[in-house]
Design goal:
Layout (H helix, E strand, L loop, with lengths): L5 E4 L13 E4 H4 L4 H12 L9 E6 L5 H14 L4 E5 L6 H10 L10 E5 L11 E7 L8 H11 L4 E4 L12 E7 L2 E8 L3 H10 L2 H9 L5 E4 L6 H11 L7 E2 L20 H6 L14 E5 L6 E5 L2 E3 L1 H15 L10 E4 L5 H8 L4 E4 L3 H9 L5 E4 L3 E4 L7 H15 L12 H12 L1 E12 L1 H14 L3 H8 L8 E6 L2 E2 L6 E2 L4 E5 L4 E7 L6 E11 L9 H16 L1 H5 L6 E2 L1
Parallel strand pairs: 3-4, 3-5, 4-9, 10-11, 10-12, 15-16, 15-17
Antiparallel strand pairs: 1-7, 2-6, 5-6, 8-9, 12-13, 13-14, 17-18, 19-25, 19-26, 20-23, 21-22, 23-24, 24-25
Helix pairs in contact: 2-3, 2-5, 7-13, 10-11, 10-13
Length: 581
């Protein structure tokens, strides 16, 4: 079939500024006339011509509501803008890490390679007709578009007057694997629907020792539970955990992807992953059933993860530190050593201690995976992580939830390889406590105040910046209490990228205490409405006799100081956070 290109007149629409995680809004915003089209055309216009004309693009996402409509629109706009071919995961499903893997690894039958991708996701935010939708563009390295591109996209959205679309191109059947061929003014245009999991599974098998993990999962002493929260991870869970690794089908929870995530909030934390938390023995009521040895959860687009042991929660900050400490021995991909490690600024300093002990390059970066990507592209970083349940490595340029689960299963398999027939397996809790005994423990918690009035949130942050000019005033708020040491430094985190020299300012407000404790305040841009204030509280304990305390109890004095210092109640009207992690 031959299609025609239409030029559709449009006008700019306010508020199309993409953040570090792309553009996220309510579905009702995205379905406005021209809204999605304006953003997609503005993205094409921000790219160099060779990244569009004759190029191969990936278009897929986490399957949330409006994805199928959006995919058809983007295919038609790709055709009109001279793209040569579009690759779509079957049913429009590709996890964010799988998209990165497809860009980096997949080769078409004609030798084609992707140069970028439109990823349709709002990550860990809810889905459905009245919930969130999102879109972001990833580059040829598989990572998110850098600020220079997203700034250009935003500028284009403010001046756009028309977009190109092949309106007569028929809708593609994205449920069936195959290739559809068309012709347009600039020649051939193909749409290939391919298996969502194959490329990603192949990559995971090249990184981990699947046979060793399979032996662990086949042990009668080891039980396992994985919760996809009805997100796109379900498209990979059965293939990897059941077919490849031999886990029982019953070990998979909520692994059928749904447009509304089953009405739940696909955020893998102790608040929203209720079913998994209860099954792992961490619920409010005691269960008579013995919990599994290992549990994990994913978010909507499968780039985040939560790791649990039997009645035991592993903080994301501890998780990345423990993976880094054990990677060389337990994961074949890292057997020749780590190039370096990195964490986001709000993440606890547990990884710093591992880096120092193992003499590894270490980097502290702003929140946003693109900063890790720069380090990885330069060969400076192998493993990295964020406290917001994101962990990953240089195998792709996104955080990777399934990778993190396989990393933990690899560590457990390695620690137990001579012990599968013994009396007792080394558990998740054993591994964490052994780590604390060697490296010390970073007591850590995060308070999220979601959907706060945006003006009030900005006022609170401005107050804290002003307060930083006087350490005496800060310490007077703390008072004479002996259980919290004095603040010795207060600043706004600023980062100079060692690779490209770019400077990122205003990346979070920090209060650093004499004993190594920290308070960090950040405004988060990951929600679609209002503002989210994140408060991070951390205290380091090296004395192994004191590393076994309850985290909230150990941090209670610091929490009290943080709330008093920030005047949280006064500015926001909130007497308690929405989520405590």
């Amino acid at each position: 079939m031959v299609f025609k290109v239409s030029k559709v007149s449009t006008t700019p629409i306010d508020g199309q500024k993409p953040g570090t995680s792309g553009l996220r809004k309510k579905v009702k915003v995205f379905i406005q006339p021209h809204y999605l089209q304006n953003f997609v055309q503005s993205t094409f216009n921000a790219l160099t011509p060779e990244k569009v004309r004759g190029a191969t693009l990936v278009v897929s996402g986490d399957g949330r509501y409006f994805s199928k409509d959006a995919i058809q629109i983007i295919i038609k706009m790709s055709a009109a803008n001279g793209v040569r071919r579009v690759w779509v995961g079957q049913n429009g499903l590709l996890s964010t890490p799988a998209v990165s893997a497809v860009i980096r690894e997949r080769v078409g039958v004609d030798g084609s390679k992707a140069t970028g991708a439109f990823i349709l996701t709002a990550s860990h935010n809810p889905g459905g007709p009245h919930e969130d939708f999102g879109i972001k563009y990833n580059m040829e390295n598989g990572g998110p578009a850098p600020e220079a591109i997203t700034d250009k996209i935003f500028e284009n959205t403010k001046t756009i007057t028309e977009y190109l679309i092949a309106e007569d191109l028929p809708n593609i059947d994205i449920s069936t694997i195959g290739v559809a061929n068309f012709s347009g003014p600039e020649g051939q245009f193909d749409v290939e629907v391919f298996d969502s999991a194959s490329d990603y599974v192949k990559l995971m098998k090249s990184i981990f020792d699947f046979e060793l993990i399979r032996k662990l999962l086949s042990s009668s002493k080891f039980t396992f539970c994985y919760d996809a929260l009805h997100g796109v991870a379900g498209a990979y869970a059965h293939r990897i955990f059941v077919e490849e690794l031999g886990a029982q089908e019953s070990s998979l929870l909520n692994c059928v992807p749904k447009e509304d995530f089953g009405g739940g909030h696909p955020d893998p934390n102790l608040t929203y992953a209720k079913e998994l938390v209860a099954r792992m023995g961490l619920g409010k009521s005691d269960s008579a059933v013995d919990p599994p040895e290992f549990g994990a959860a994913a978010d909507g687009d499968a780039d985040r993860n939560m790791i649990l042991g039997k009645r035991f929660f592993v903080t994301p900050s501890d998780s990345v530190a423990i993976i880094a400490a054990n990677a060389v021995n337990a994961i074949p991909y890292f057997s020749s050593g780590l190039k370096g490690v990195a964490r986001s600024m709000p993440t606890s300093a547990a990884l710093d201690v591992v880096a120092k002990n193992l003499n590894l390059k270490f980097f502290e970066v702003p929140t946003g995976w693109k900063f890790f990507g720069n380090l990885m592209d330069a060969g400076l970083c192998s493993i990295c992580g964020e406290e917001s349940f994101g962990t990953g490595s240089d195998h792709i340029r996104e955080k990777d939830g399934v990778w993190a689960v396989l990393a933990w299963l690899s560590i457990l398999a390695f620690k137990n390889k001579e012990n599968l027939n013994g009396d007792k397996l080394v558990t998740v809790e054993d591994i964490v406590r052994q780590h604390w005994a060697i490296y010390g423990r970073h007591y850590y918690t995060r308070y999220d105040y979601e959907n706060v009035d945006a003006g009030a949130a900005k006022d609170l942050m401005a107050y804290l910046v002003k307060l930083q000019s006087s350490l005496d005033e800060i310490n007077s708020v703390k008072g004479a209490r002996s259980d919290v040491s004095n603040v010795v430094n207060a600043d706004e985190f600023e980062y100079k990228d060692p690779v490209d020299g770019s400077v990122s300012k205003h990346q979070g407000i920090r209060f650093l205490f004499e004993d190594g404790s920290r308070l960090v305040f950040r405004l988060s841009g990951t929600g679609s409405e209002g503002a989210t204030i994140r408060l991070y509280i951390e205290q380091y304990e090296k004395d192994s006799s004191k590393t076994g305390r309850d985290s909230q109890e150990a941090l209670a004095p610091l929490v009290e100081v943080a709330l008093k210092l920030s005047k949280m109640l006064e500015f926001t009207g909130r007497s308690a956070p929405t989520v405590i992690t």
